[in-house]
Specification:
Keywords: ANK repeat. This is Ankyrin repeat domain-containing protein. The protein has a domain of about 100 residues: Serine Threonine Protein Phosphatase 5, Tetratricopeptide repeat. It is flat and about 80 Å long. The chain is built from 30 helices and no strands. The protein is mainly alpha-helical.
Length: about 500
Amino acid sequence: DINAQGGFYGGVIQAAAVKGCKEIIELSLQYGADINLQGGHVGTAIAAAASEGHQDVVEYLVQHGADINLQGGNYGTAITEAAYRGHQGIVEYLVQHGADINLQGGNHGTAIAAAASKGHQGIVEYLVQHGADINLEGGNYGTAITEAAYGGHQGIVEYLVQHGADINFQDGHYGTAIVAAASEGHHGIVDYLLQHGADINLQGGVYGTAIVAAALQGHQGIADYLVEHGADINLQGGHVGTAIAAAAYQGDQGIVEYLVQHGADINLQGGYFGTAIAAAASGVHQDVVEYLVQHGADTNLQGGNYGTAITAAAYRGHQGIVEFLIQHGADINLQDGNYGTAIVAAAYRGHQGIVGYLFQHGADINFQGGHYGNAIVAAASEGHHGIVDYLVQHGADINLQGGNYGTAIAAAAYQGDQELVEYLVQHGADINLQDGEYGTAIAAAAFWGHQDVVEYLVQHGADVNLQSGQYRTAVTAAASEGHQDIVESLLQHGAVLNLHGGD
């Protein structure tokens, strides 16, 4: 099949176009190849040829009916491909033959944005002169000026501003041009944009503001400059929330100190980490953690993914930070975030030394909270046998219920960890305890196809007809995933097929 598609290029005609093989294209067309076939990385044959600078192939394809504006592939259209690659002759030919300059699609959105991203000023100017909408948004970065600012192409930034680009246009990954420039350390562009009306505190994109972008990427010169020109140090937005949290996460103590000296609220909450101290703990920067505490950071402030700084440090396995925080008043049992408490986070990640240290300093082994419910379930879910054993030896309730798995034995069964299942049973785990997504340990094992675990549980008293959880019974769970051997084994051990329940 001459039009069969597959692989990186999509089809025969696209592959030939990429290589500039006009003879193969001609032969392909004679055998019925679709000149507008779409597929693969570049989308169409004309886009493929345009991308690689094969103008003779582009012209041949146009003369034989190629749709010049057909969209597809990573860059959207042939003109965008040519613009991105810097093939001005092809760009001009396509425009002269009807290419829509403002057609949107692909990673860069438009031809002018694609050209701006790579610094092809000649193409940018040509497109503007031929009707390109300078403020058209689209693609990953939003507009042409943001693309140019991100790439550090100051000449293009200035040209675009002189021809009507909206400096404060918001869209795309970085939100605005000044944020894009700040994130990449392009001081000259940041300065130019401010002098021409850029809003220094405009929020948008993954960083939120220009100062957060500069702080996160370690551009202290730009951070200082932005503060001197009116940036709001405490403005919140973006993934990390604040400039001080961004700098703290990266361990850039110079920027952290500068921000504190210029009025940054050290306990301001927001973003993924919640607080600056939690960000520093997550980034395992003990020097920054210590500096923040010395300057008034609340070690028990709650918020963000980890909930508290001590939980963040425990999750990351930095015992030094854990110890420092405890010595400076951190509540070891404070509950918040996805992991609930510090000991649960440490147990989940397999940091046995921290689990032991926390227990010795008052951590409640059976405290419940977070996605995994408690420490023993968290450890069992990841197969940390040593931690499970330590917790059991120090008083963990082996049948404590909570979290998505419900119980430690269900978590171990879910993972197919027969050794751990056996250990838990030998130490008093209730095989038929009901809780969590799968309801019972046997249903969890059955759903995931762990036949050895299923058989072990049956041999040790699991009720094969117990109804609970999303699938209600073990046989239903096994059947839903096509585990015929387990279904047959369960039936042989008394499972009833016509029990009602489950999704």
